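Researcher: Before we compare anything, I want clean individual predictions. No alignment, no superposition, just each chain on its own. First chain goes here; please echo the sequence and then give the structure tokens.
Model: Echoing the first chain and its structure:
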Amino acid sequence: MEPALLRQYLGLLGVSRRAPSFDALRELVAAHVTRIPFENISKLHYRRHLGLNDLMPLPLYLDGIERYHFGGTCYTNNFHFYSLLAGLGYEVKLCGADMSTPDVHMVILVRVDGQEYLVDGGYAAPFLAPLPRGLQADYVVTLGRDRYVLKPQDGNGRSRLELYRDGVLKHGYVAKPSPRKIEDFHGVIVDSFRPDATFMNAVLLVRFYPDRSLMIHNLTRVESSWAESVTHTIGSPAELVSNVEKHFGIPAAIVSDAIAGLRDLKDVWA
């Protein structure tokens, strides 16, 4: 990572450069997850106006965060965060994770202070701290109606993450420890821009805070604290635009243009 981009990235996170350590990593993870939202408005916007159909370049990613309060989806958030950690001197691996399709998700594995951790800023999840991999029992993160369970590694060193919503298993993935190159994900990234792809037919924005979260998923807004989740119905596309601008700071004109033409909105966790 070019030094100027690294400085810009850290500036957007509000974090000073420190030598690699668990405390420094925890600060970086918390800053990334709370300051850079999971959102696909930028994906829709750049696809329409720039013809983007591959990984968003780092300068464009940082410019979008700074100018429009964008963030990104799985590949963008996690690959660029991986690159930042590597640039800061961390022992880090980019790894594939299986959902219904092999390697359809990517995660980051970081080894620091003799322990390995799972870092995932691209799952729209409240992972405000590195998740330990050397587990003897389930590791649980709870926020409102959602409960995330990281299982101990299996015999092949894989880590299973499960998302339970209202007590029902809703989604999850299996993270694999083999290091991968970003080129290995080229096909799945290109596929994510297909006309029938999930994030070309849905709206999802999630912002995390130290003690709460706010999610807009299609025509619902969900506000969660550690104890509960409250769901609000969004009545129209115009109301959706105003909700995104109010709660995420993305300009209304960009949101309106990005969602124009979306019809049958998909459940991104289906």
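Researcher: Okay. Second chain, same rules.
Model: Second chain and its structure:
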Amino acid sequence: MKILVINAGSSSFKYQLLDMDTKTVLCSGLVERIGEAMGTMAHKIAPDTNQEEKIVIEQAFPNHVAGMRLVVKTITDPAKGVIKNASEVEAIGHRVVMGGESIKESVLITEAIKQLVRDHFPLSPLHNPANLAGIEVAEQLFPGVPNVGVFDTEFHQTMPEAAYLYPLPYSLYEEMRIRRYGYHGTSHRYVTGKAAEVLGKPVEQVNLITCHLGNGCSITAVQNGKSVDTSMGTTPLEGIMMGTRCGDIDPAIIPYLMSKPEYAKVSEVDKLMNKKSGLLGISAISNDMRNLQTDAAKNGPSSRSQLALDMFCYRVKAFVGQYMAILGRVDAVCFMGGIGENGAMVREHSLSNLEIFGIVVDLEKNDATIRGKEGDISMAGSKTRVLVIPTDEEGWIAEETYKRCK
């Protein structure tokens, strides 16, 4: 069975075409800058093999449909295509960010499911509309082909009430379902399974702290293979400091800001916390960890870039310590995501001085970890292992889609 996976964003989407019979990725790519004057499609044939071939096409994409039409044309191209025609795609899997409490596993997309995705637009305004757009594009271009939704919030539905409820009047939960939902669930679930393999234990027996660190960041406490706490909340804004998101702050800051004329509108405060804060807000330079490290090396320890790096690592460490206390026994701390997989400095400083918890990073192994490769960077004899595991959200979505459609 050949499955197309779509991970749609507001102005971009990632895709993979997988052959589930041979467990191979036939092609993958990224379409970005949708709606701008000029966009780009970066397409890889046979990615992660010695035969990998890259194709880059620049053109305007007025909408997601235009981008997906080019993807279909490219994957069926007589010379460079990986399938003869679109009818070879037998199922389509979609990442959907917010599914609320009712979605506890992957589901076939129906009109009712699409309405549920719409109903949660207010809690995931940056993601759910784009996810729904991806679904509707797939329905238009692949009529009759089953679509499956794999929701970020699924994995965290095992959290106990004490973890997911906020200390607000209980009536707000009853009436508005205000609670912690958690995000990046496909990534945390995938890495949990891979970590269990590395540790040589059944997934039902592993306790982990999984750190998904990228432009968006979340940390999850996994007990016996299930999420029992996570840093993101009702929305993906809560938790640790991120690329442009503030993460946890004193909630009283919000009404204080709104008392000032320049922040009197809710939209302005929302933009401030989601798009102007985090690494970008502190450094005033960039939300990209690589740019900040370069600037900090140039301008020294008193630079704002270094301050942003220090704050980021401090907050990762604080959540690791919190979840060590919640779990008691931790088999491994796992790093994934763009920063988690590639940021040796972040891993080192986030886990420094945690020897009392049995966490000791081998600095040579940490520095030698190769991008895209699994690695155990813990010191020999370390009670708690430290693992770098490249996440594969698209691969997990394909597995779930196959399970629903085979």
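Researcher: What stands out in the second chain?
Model: The longest strand covers residues 24-32. Additionally, The chain has a mean pLDDT of 94.
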